[in-house]
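Quick bug: 2-oxoadipate dioxygenase/decarboxylase output formatted oddly.
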Amino acid sequence: MSAATFLEPWQLRAAFARSLSDMYGKEVPAYTTLLDVSHEVNADFVAKHGADAERLGSVARVTAERHGAIRVGTPTEMAQVARVFGAMGMHPVGFYDLRDASSSSVPVISTAFRPIERAELARNPFRVFTSMLVTADRRFFTADLERRLESFLAARTLFGPELLALADRAEAEGGLPEDQAAQFLRLATQAFELSSEPVDQAWYRELEAVSAVAADIGGIASTHINHLTPRVLDIDDLYARMEARGITMIDAIQGPPRWEGPDVLLRQTSFRALAEPRTFRTADGEIVRDALRVRFGEVEARGIALTREGRAAYDAAVLEIDEKAAAARAEDPGLTETRRQEIARGVWQKTFPATETGLAAQGLGWFTYEVDPAGFTPEVRREPVVYEDFLPRSAAGIFQSNLTSDGAKDASQEGINRDADWMSGALGRELNDPFDLYADQVDRSLAGAAETLGVDPATLTTTDRTTGAPR
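Here's what came back:
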């Protein structure tokens, strides 16, 4: 069968990302504004910085890049999600527990589905942050509420049999014929559209009192795309431009501070969740109009992936920033975000080196190594590895910033353990460790460079990870 009539997983992935973006733009018009501003910022950044602007990915990749976020209720639904995304060459990577990552009530655990091979990421890096309710956690749900919630979730169908059958075929056969691919994409996009079915008002409000996130997941008989995030090269510029257009942004940019050194990990922000009209069914059967604030416009700037040592330094820096900000707030209850950012930059400057060479030399960041044939003697060129994953604290911060209330969390109750092994079992699939994936990228690049140069890879490992060039 010719390539023109058969869509491979990466082509399904790229087409699905475009289809979701088109659908979400129609449902949330402010998202289209966010895309327009993102494109403006990226174009201006490239014009100003030239080739350096593409240090962490070509502008074509950055412009096309999206990450989505969805929420489901049960292990069965999570396993079905894994089948749908598996058809597009997207694998579960990482485990995120948001239950303790925020002061608000966010009773979910998460993973992210994304490509894992370097070549697949370059083709299309679409990723979906996928969260699931932990209904057995007594800090959030009583035994009675858990029973009723589980019964409600078990009665609904998020992904129909035809969609799942096409997904399984695509994963097994490495793609789909064009006509079946079109049907798969139509059904997959439809599964994440906002439903027009009336919402049981009393049931939704009962869950909302516990957590707005729980109500968004378990208060309706469907799911939907919660946000769809473009990538931008200068998130501070985007934040200012969005506000200049009269769009209300959340109070802060989540993640590392803006500073003079290399960007690492992930910085995120969003416009505030908008009031969207919905229909509700009251206890006496009357259909009434109201509004919900559950969907928002997130945007992200991606930096260099950190090693385990780098991530430990990051986590320690975040705690230090919290402590210093708390002390400053005790002296001045009106502590501004500008002042908090100043505190964060001070911590950053003493924690991280101000150059990529320093990150590499100290073993804090991941870098690949490619042979540059230019010049009389071939040299090894060091390239930063883009961070492809997420930060639980930042994700919870975005969630929290867009909630109408903190909900209710009973800290006197014991939580229930959920970890990466549990998630893997629920999915029926291996849960990839992001650090292992980054290390594999580096090792493969070193092996390729060593083969090209005809040297021992161990020599390159020793020298290139410290100085960036072979002896």
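Actually, after a second look the formatting is fine. Residues 308-331 form the longest helix (24 residues). Closing.
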